[in-house]
Amino acid sequence: MNEIRIDLKTLQTYIEETSATSDYYHKGIHYLLISLLQSGAVWRDPAQIVLTIEDMESELNPDLAKKLDDIARRRHN
């Protein structure tokens, strides 16, 4: 099973630290962390992460499929 594990209080702290009222405000990271919290909160219906390029999934885009396979093998170029 492939999972992301993070302490709830730590995640909530990161959300606070990236909020609009914080010195470390970052809108994109803030909402990504909120999405992670919400996905973890619905633990009875686990989330699936789907990465796309131009709204196309890897099942339909061989270039994206290869890129994701390379990333999974730790070849990030």
Give a verbal description of the structure.
By secondary structure, this protein is mainly α. It has two domains: 34 residues; 31 residues, no CATH class. Helix content is 47%, strand content 5%. It contains three helices and two strands. It has a two-stranded antiparallel ribbon with strand order 1-2. Helix 1 runs antiparallel to helix 2. The model has no long low-confidence stretch (mean pLDDT 92).
List the helices and strands and how they pair.
Elements (H helix, E strand, L loop, with lengths): L7 H10 L9 H15 L10 E2 L2 E2 L4 H11 L5
Antiparallel strand pairs: 1-2
Helix pairs in contact: 1-2
Mean pLDDT: 92
Oligomer: single chain
Distance, first to last CA = 26 Å
Quickly count the domains: 2
Structural class estimated from helices and strands? mainly alpha
Short structural description:
By secondary structure, this protein is mainly alpha-helical. It is 47% helix and 5% strand.
Record keyword descriptors for this entry.
77 residues, mainly alpha, 2 domains, two-stranded antiparallel sheet
